[in-house]
Design brief:
The chain is mostly beta strands. It is built from no helices and eleven strands. The chain has strands at 2-7, 10-12, 18-26, 31-39, 46-51, 57-59, 67-72, 77-82, 91-101, 104-109, 113-117. Strands 2, 4, 5, 6, 9, 10 and 11 form a seven-stranded mixed sheet that branches. The N and C termini lie far apart (40 Å).
Length: 119
């Protein structure tokens, strides 16, 4: 099992920046891809960014050029640097890690951290 804990959310004005972090614990040697998702009020959870163990990144079109995902495989953390934030980026942001077991690959989710972009 893998446990995840996000931090770094908050209130920021449009055009501002925030950096989210996610710390993992438990069977961290089993972690494969890590990523970020978000869920705005009244909407479904959506993909934001993903990074493989090897550092290959994928982004949602809505955040390309503004958000950067990174990971530290030694500290077992994943971060999301968010620049040029827009009101539509307001959501609860969740960290996700795919971890491997003898039975296959499973997702683990953090509890989420609120990001509010408002003037």
């Amino acid at each position: 099992q893998v446990q995840l804990a996000e931090s770094g959310g908050g209130l920021v004005q449009p055009g501002g920046s925030l950096r989210l972090s996610c710390a993992s614990s438990g069977d961290i040697s089993s972690i494969n891809d890590m990523g970020w998702y978000r869920q705005a009020p009244g909407k479904q959870r959506e993909f934001v960014a993903r990074i493989t163990v090897g550092g290959v990144t994928t982004y949602a079109d809505s955040v390309k050029g503004r958000f950067t995902i990174s990971r530290d495989n030694v500290k077992n953390t994943v971060s999301l640097q968010m620049l040029s934030l827009k009101p539509e980026d307001t959501a609860v942001y969740f960290c996700k890690a795919d971890f491997l077991t003898a039975a296959g690959e499973f997702p683990s989710w953090g509890q989420g951290t609120q990001v509010t972009v408002s003037s």
